[in-house]
Amino acid sequence: MFANLNGLEGNLFDEFRRMEQEMDQLFGRNPWTSGIRSVARGTYPPINIGSTPEQVDVYLFAAGVDPKALEISIHQNLLTIDGERRLITEEGADYFRKERYDGAFHRVVTLPDDVDPEQVEAAYRDGVLRITIKRRVKSQPRQIEVK
Amino acid sequence: MNESNDVVRQQSKTVEQGKRERTMRPPVDIFEDSTGITVQADMPGVSKDRLEVHIENDTLSIDGTADIAMPEGMEALYADIRSTHYQRSFSLSRELDGDKVNATLKDGVLILRIPKREQYQPRKIEVRVV
Lengths: 147, 130
Description:
The complex is a heterodimer of chains A (about 150) and B (about 130). Chain A is mostly beta strands. Chain A has helices at about 1-5, 15-30, and strands at about 45-50, 55-60, 70-75, 80-85, 95-100, 105-110, 115-125, 130-135. The N and C termini of chain A lie far apart (about 65 Å). Chains A and B meet through strand 1, strand 2 and strand 5 of A and strand 2, strand 3, strand 4 and strand 7 of B.
């Protein structure tokens, strides 16, 4: 199953059930994550998304990718990441395992509605691409005076 | 080269898993040429100082911890990756020289080169014209 696809350990069925339940909870709690653009687990590269009141961080676990070959764009609250990882196959060598992803990838992430597409930063370090999108400053609560 | 699937080891891991954080098996490419074996492993987030490669009793172990910078109070909205610990091990065969393993890490990709012992390397026999 997907554990084999993205190399995650944990082949116990209990573990799968637990994870499925977790995913259901996650999708149920945050309706935006179950968007029409969501993809099957195990799609390369794996993504984590974290949120604080100030910003949303998207992490792409894409080792050995040339950052110049990455194309990141944001349209409203839709973040698109295109890239490719071309592995060099050793000529004349005997391959025993070929588990690493090779080729182009494309991922679309729907972000919360209050992100500011003008304030996006991206950094690539140790094979992890981190994209930080600031949220819009919420209007301060106002007190309405009764005249 | 075979992946270790020692029964005793597997059992202890299962027991540990309940207490410890889950570990991830990094995906690998392994190939052999005439002079040795090369292992390439994807370990995004792992820096040099958080990586350990060691060989003991002909078992090659890769152990790494990803360091992911996160702002304080971050809540997970979605997570494909649920662990920061990578672990995988392989048993080496006799003709491989565990003392001469060369390891490099770049952009989260670990490359291990395990040379064959000299006496196992193919020798070219020159044909002399008489």
